[in-house]
Input
Amino acid sequence: MKTLKAVEQRAKILAKNNNDLLECIENKSLPINVDVSLSEGIILGLLKQKVRKYFAIFGHGSTDFAEILRIYEEHGVTKTFNFRNEVEMAHAATALRWQYNEIPAVVTSIGPGALQAMAGSLASSSNGVGLYHIYGDETTYGEGYNMQQIPKREQDLYGKITALMSESHVFHTPESIRDGLRKGYLKTKHPYKAGPFYFMLPINTQPKIIKNLNLITLPGQDDLKNKSKLDYEQIKEFEKIINKYEKIVIKAGGGSIKFSKELKTFSENLKLPVVLAPGSLGILPDDHENNMHVGGSKGSISGNFAMQNAELLISIGSRSVCQSDCSGIGYPNAKEVININADLADMMHYNNTLGLNGDIGTILNQLNTELNTKNIKSNSKNNWIEECKVQKRKWFDFKKRIYENEKLKDEAFGKVILTQPAAIKHAVDFSNQNKCVKFFDAGDVQANGFQIAEDMRPDDTFTETGASYMGFSTSAILASAIADNPRYPISFTGDGSFMMNPQALIDAAYLGLKGMIIIFDNRRMAAITGLQYAQYSKEFKTNDGVEVDYVQMANSVKGVKGIYGGHNGVEFKTALKKGYEYDGLSVIHVPVYSGTDELGGMGAYGSWNVGNWCEDVQAEYVKQKI
Output
């Protein structure tokens, strides 16, 4: 009881001082050295790193940690949100950091809970999103099997598993708190390779008291920016290379998202086409003349044209993921590469590369200055960009034809219904008109979605292309119920992806989310069906034919409103308006066509090393010049 009174006293002091640990130390309301449990030490350390929100499914392995959170929340220092599924919880936490830049911590126990949370963390790991995962771990005494541990006589197994996913620290020794927090800070705040960091808190070390812990030494205030600039030789080499070629393409990867202004100026200075990755929508406004849209395995006519005909690739902030560079053969005519990247390994992904290593914004600003002052003389010709613009007009004409033929007869539904591209287009337009944020789920909806989305800003769309995690978008929009300054979210999801995390309906009602889920229902895994037809001309086991009343399902949760989306554009737009006006979560169910009619999808314009395409793609890959 004495220990808990001390915890309460510290929580009261923090609350009176804006929850600022350093302020409390500076005004001497808290001593520099304190006796605290490992659980409270972690919470104090994370508070110094601006972590105030905890996403939790508590178990037997986290009761002590939960008690400290209870006290801190009672006094307004932290806030804990409980969920029903660990995968869903991990996705929502990822979105809170990704969309709103608030760093949360996910809390669960080892066993099925930790494995599910860790599975969900693949999305944050793949997309470079930094946040904490805290798992209550088995005891350190080795007294026998602990419930839910991996049944193997070996120590720190969950620590090893999480270290494989990203980075982790096992608190076998509570006094290692500074080291653990420092490593966590470096990973979650890493300027270009952020990701999840896992704390393993053994059940018996959580309540252990750390004597005389110096609060000032808890990390959390260090500047991790990379501010290095290019030297004269690098700038001259850049100039030399760009003047060797006429057909140059800029590929904007996900790492360039934060530097859209600098990249836009860079492309304008050089008069060069920019091809987007699926995760960098909006980095140039959709209507910008240099924007050739998405390129890759599921790219666009204009984006893939620019990639396939370029002689020089300027890659910016890209990991060169297989679907983004057509499994390594997206640039068959490229002879050299200029790669601007903070990460050395990603920078040297291609051969014949001039690597410009450092902060992307710093490098682009430096090159823009040199171009503006004519220290770099660019012999840019307009012929190439005009060639690309012709292809861009072809892409627009193709999309227009798809949208105008918005209905087809579907076998599964036995009636004429909207095509998925037409339905997504209506929803995208509605979202843009109302300044909503779009989340595209994995599968056919995602693939069509990033071809259709017409974003003017980088934060208009979030599409989890890193892990392509089914069920991400329905879970991710829950973050808008928790964020300090929320923006109305719309989840674009297929019927298969939605059923991966349908408990989001319950948590949305519990958390008071105001947002929308649109279920584009084609009663199948259409992305895989499409691949099967393209490769083998036959579909196999991607369709179960089961009818589901998603409207009734949604309406069965008090506080959620289910709406039928209808069979045509007029009915669907009416449903969108009705859903948007609802003060809570609305779920719109719209049946969409699935089949082999070319008007039913957006098409594919690149290559991919899968199925019976592998032999041809790999034969081309070994011949590449870069």
The mean pLDDT is 94. DSSP finds 24 helices and 22 strands in the chain.
